[in-house]
Amino acid sequence: MMQKLFLFTILMISGYVLPAQAYLEGNKAMSLGEHNSFTIDFNIGDAETIADLWVDYQRDFKAKKPKLDKKSNEYFADDAEIEKISDNTIDIYSKVARKSGKGAVLTIWFDLGGAFLSSARHPERIAGAREWMAGFEQVVKAAFAKEALEAEENTLKDLEKELKGLQKDKEDAVKEVEKLEEELEAARQKVAEMNQTIGAKQQQVMSQAKTVDEAKSKLKKMKR
Prior knowledge:
The protein is α+β, with helices and mostly antiparallel strands. It has helices at residues 2-14, 47-59, 123-222; strands spanning 24-30, 33-42, 67-69, 74-80, 90-98, 104-111. It has a domain at 2-153: 2-Layer Sandwich (TATA-Binding Protein), CATH 3.30.310. The protein contains 3 helices and 6 strands. It has a 6-stranded antiparallel β-sheet with strand order 1-2-6-5-4-3, covered by helices on one side. A hairpin with a 4-residue loop joins strand 3 and strand 4 (74-80).
């Protein structure tokens, strides 16, 4: 119970808690016939987990462990103590139905002892009933908010791991660039040295060409 209150407090601080809805009310068939019921439509989670949370929530109010009649798929919780609704104990009948997507639909019948809770017959008790049902909504939201947080934390860990890998790749790339820059500088130095060597060689070629021309001229004069 303390953990649920702690998660509820977190949700209140973060603004996650929504105002209590006007729960859909109406007569629906159940094991004792057709009686007034209240419906909570969840768009998060899964039916199995919501059902487990629902069983635990009722036990927090001293209800004997709700039993599931597999034939009717109906839960029965005996002698729950919900002061917000009644000074006497209450029997709670309920069904948790799967939805095609996420979530589940919870239908609740409150047997006050001789009559089932309804806005028409017990207007002074409805505010308490809605508050009690809203309490269970927050338990479900808290449970799946925690699950969502764990999923986000795992995603964060994966992203951090990827970031670490990218940083390592960057470090390797920087080292490669430094190596290439050193090689490029060595190549530039070699080009500069070759330019000097080529310049000197060009001077030798030009000087030799001049010597050859002079030798040709001398030979030409000798033949006259």
